[in-house]
Amino acid sequence: MFAKLHLSQSADAAAYAAAVFQARSLNAHAYLNRSQLAHQVAMAHWVTLGSAVKFMGTQASRSMQRNPPPWLIGTLFGAQYAGSYVSAQKMISPESIVQTIQKHHDSHNRQIHQDIARSRSTLINVVTQARLDVIDDILARNLSAGHNSLKGTTLANIGVSYELVLDEFQNRVQVSSTQHPEWREFLETVTGMYGYLKPRNVTKINWWWPNLQCPIFRPKLRRRGNTSLDKHGRWQSSDNLSYHAIKFNRLIGCYEREYPMGWGLAQEIQSDRPAIQNQSAPWDFSKMPFWRWFKSVVQLDGVSWFSSKNSLADAWAQQTSQRFRSGGFAQFSHLNRTDRRSFTFQLVVKQKGFSVLGIPFELVVRSKAEAYFEPPRLSAVTEYQDSPHLYYAFWHAKLSPQDESLLNARP
Q1: Could you give the dihedral angle defined by the CA atoms of residues 270, 271, 273 and 275, in that order, rounded to the nearest 10 degrees?
Q2: C-alpha dihedral sign at 11, 16, 21, 23
Q3: Over its length of 411 residues, how does the chain's per-residue pLDDT go in tens digits?
Q4: Exposed end of the chain (fewer CB within 10 Å): N or C?
Q5: Which pTM value belongs to this model?
């Protein structure tokens, strides 16, 4: 009787230890996913900062060239806009700043595609055998000094064998590309929390300086900026600022003549995928009227002579874009089934070497354990209803009550 109790306690200890290891492996996947997410958000910030530095560098150049002149910007839109335009001249050595940004960006890219990917692969490959090793160690430590007639330090020497049945943990963790909608949605939710990555779109309109030939239109100061993730998993950030004067032409009538005041484009590229195709635009319109170029490029989309974009600044930014190396889509861990909040298994342990009245027999015990998902409750009345996932390390372990129908079943 004592031997059976000792074997049952040892099985419970081994099952619980295996469930703890199982929960820790799920938490490790959650930490890897969160670490990868942090690196990816950091890369978005570095790319955005890269376009901002390029933008300030070109803005400094344009303000020193007085094209358009700062006094005109101040007269039409206010002294604060002219002051901001001129202050860009304080930018010193933007090239060295961009090189530093690129260095940090490459470090995050390496962490995602090398270090984290290697750790995730190792975790996937060793978890099954490592769980068995935990059970071996616990059973051997507890039963090697038992009351069995067999003596030794290994399970084979002391006549112990075991089997995992009804194992729900097998193949529950899958690795998929981050182009998966689940990851994309989670990434967009997180990046939406950072104001620096949000659209930077502002339009200032002058209402008191009309063109007599186009009285219903007004000059505009248009700021555009956006950070986005393309279909290949590459970050791109664009920043530009243009002054739009109202002009009149007898052939086309009224139109907006754009004068870029600053532009910057930073984009990630992959060696196996082409970069964004440059949109060609002349740097000097002395040989081509602006409206002809605008018609050939912008009106292909069916828009009028008035656009909501800074088309020329966009084209110049593409022609001088800052490019960062990227591995594109990475991988992440997720559960292939989220309708269960726990993954259970049953451990069946057998031990030979006992005899009663000279007749040898075998002891058989069962223990059931589980790894379950349970975030902390914020109050006594709240309850977490979301499906379990691998983004928060809220996996725990415990022993589970066994089904009565299985207690008498043969292993």
Answers
A1: 70
A2: positive
A3: 677 888 899 999 999 999 999 999 999 999 999 999 999 999 999 999 999 999 999 999 999 999 999 999 999 999 999 999 999 998 888 889 999 999 999 999 999 999 999 999 999 999 989 999 999 999 988 887 655 555 666 788 788 899 999 898 888 899 999 999 999 999 999 999 999 999 999 999 999 888 888 888 899 999 999 999 988 889 999 999 999 999 998 888 888 999 999 999 999 998 656 555 566 889 988 888 888 888 877 654 444 557 788 999 999 999 999 999 999 899 999 998 666 788 999 999 998 866 666 666 788 999 999 999 988 876 555 555 678 889 999 999 999 987 655 545 444
A4: N
A5: 0.86
CA-only gyration radius of the chain, Å: 33
Q: Which residues pair with 342 in a beta bridge?
A: 372
Alpha carbon distance 174, 389 (integer Å): 12
CA-closest candidate to residue 139, choices 289, 13, 296, 277: 13
Nearest to 394 by CA among 12, 13, 11, 33: 33
* Nearest partner of 20 among 111, 120, 174, 137, judged by Cα: 137
Rounded Cα distance between 40 and 111, Å, is 10
**Three-class secondary structure of residue 88 per DSSP:** helix
Paired residues of 273 in beta bridges: 270
Residue from 237, 303, 245, 310 nearest 268 by CA: 237
Taking residue 256's Cβ as centre, other Cβ atoms within 10 Å add up to 24
Judging by DSSP bridges, how do beta strands 322-325 and 253-269 pair with one another? parallel
Q: Which residue type sits at 153?
A: T
Give the closest residue to 147 by CA, choosing from 314, 332, 363, 302: 363
Do 255 and 213 touch, CB atoms closer than 8 A? no
Q: How far apart are CA 291 and CA 318, in angstroms?
A: 20
What the block records as the tokens of 387 is 């499906």
